[in-house]
Amino acid sequence: MADAAVTRRSARVFWLRGGRLLTGIASLAVTLLGLLAFTFMLSHLSPVDPVLQIAGDHASESTYAQVRRDLGLDQPVLIQFWHYLTHLVHGDLGISRLTSQPVAGDLLRTFPATLELATCAMILGATLGIMLALLAAWKPGSLLDNLARLVSLLGYSVPVFWLGLLGLLLFYAVLHWSAGPGQLDDVWIYTLEPKTGLVLIDSWLSGDTEMFRNAIAHLWLPVVVLALLAMAGITRLLRAALLEESSKEYVTLARAKGASRGHILLLHVFPNVRGTLITVLALSYATLLEGSVLTETVFAWPGVGRYMTNALFASDTPAILGSTLLIGGCFITLNALADALTYLTDPRTR
User: Fold this and answer.
1) How many other CB atoms sit within 10 Å of the CB of residue 196?
2) 245 & 341 share domain
3) For residue 102, what are the β-bridge partners?
4) Both 290 and 190 in a single domain?
5) Does residue 213 lie within any of the structural domains?
6) Contacts of 334 (CB under 8 A, 6+ apart)
7) Is pLDDT above 80 for 9?
8) Is the pLDDT assigned to residue 187 strictly greater than 90?
9) Claim to verify: residue 81 and residue 189 sit in the same structural domain
10) What string of DSSP letters covers 128-171?
């Protein structure tokens, strides 16, 4: 009887977890579909006529009608969206009207630059943000706490594009500490062999020390600008979680037993907010991946953000949809991964 009960319980847990997994996958698919549909509808409200972009302003009526048919714009919007989804299932994201290249190839070429920039900024921002949050929670109301709150407020309040322009003016034009916009100087940009698409790794693999230093000189300023944005969110949310956890009874009991404030914070409070920390880090990383549009534009960084900006100005619908799908997929995947890690590492969520 006991073995049968255990078997039934195991089967029930298996089906519950399987159902939860399928529900999560379906939710991700529906979210991406809604994002694509919303972006597709917005693209048709653009005042820019894609037919005139291809045929020219002086095209005849017959040429205009032929190009319109070739693009499929003579059909209803829902039919156009269905055709796009049909091609998407087969891995076809369309042809960019701006570059005349497949959108999938353009995204594969530009995404590594965005990934490199966001990852470096995330490492720096997470390290500083966690340190500031721990210092703030160590002595609430102290000078350190007020400093952490001020940094968090400034990180949220200052526009990232203004901070980038100010950084270029100070560190590039005046102090000459930064190498300026772009990934590399013209001396090396056409000689670098793109093995991974990540300029730091490729320049390191090339064996050219000067090229590697030049890549760092170009990278550090946009990384710092984006890291300030990530640090602000991590500091604010993690500080609030640490202070809330510090008010619980087990913390009071540990203090009554003579444990130091730093010992309690690091060994008891901090491990108990790991679920919040995982969520905050995932959201911050996703925000950097999608929020690097302005930073890449200011620093002429050849990533997805700059590619999307150029596509928006040109009303390049296939490129806009492909970029939206990529960034939206990253955001949703990181959220799902954060939920899964929280579920696995925190028994309270189970």
Assistant:
1) 12
2) yes
3) 95
4) yes
5) yes
6) 282, 283, 285, 286
7) no
8) no
9) no
10) HHHHHHHHHHHSTTSHHHHHHHHHHHHHHHS-HHHHHHHHIIII
Number of domains in the chain: 2
Buried b (16+ CB within 10 A) or exposed e, 158-188: eebeebbeebbeebbeeeeebbebebbeeeb
Q: Is residue 196 part of a domain?
A: yes
pLDDT computed for residue 350 by the predictor: 60
pLDDT band at 18 (very low <50, low <70, confident <90, very high): low
Torsion from C-alpha of 294, 295, 301, 302, nearest 10 degrees: -40
Predicted pLDDT of residue 213: 93
In a domain, 96, yes or no: no
With respect to residue 186, please indicate whether it lies within any of the assigned structural domains: yes
User: Which residue, of 57, 89, 121, is where some domain finishes?
Assistant: 89
Report the chain's terminal Cα–Cα distance, integer Å. Answer: 26
* Structural domain boundaries enclosing 170: 103-349
**Last-in-domain residue among 89, 113, 138:** 89
Residue 65, pLDDT score: 81
The pLDDT tens digits for 115-168 are 999 999 999 999 999 999 998 888 888 888 888 888 888 887 888 888 889 999
Task: State the burial class of residue 348 (Cβ atoms within 10 Å of its Cβ: 0-12, 13-18, 19+).
Answer: exposed
What own/partner pairs with CB < 8 Å and gap ≥ 24 does 24-30 have? 24/336, 24/339, 28/332, 28/333, 28/336
Residue 221 has pLDDT above 90, yes or no: yes
Amino acid present at 161: F
pLDDT at 3 > cutoff 60:
no
Alpha-carbon 231 to chain mean position: 14
Q: How far is CA 292 from CA 60, 63, 110, 161, 319, in A?
A: 41, 39, 13, 10, 17
What is residue 291's predicted lDDT score, i.e. its pLDDT?
Answer: 65
**Tokens at residue 21, please?**
């997994």
Residue 176 is given by DSSP the state -
Position of tokens 């076809």?
Answer: 92
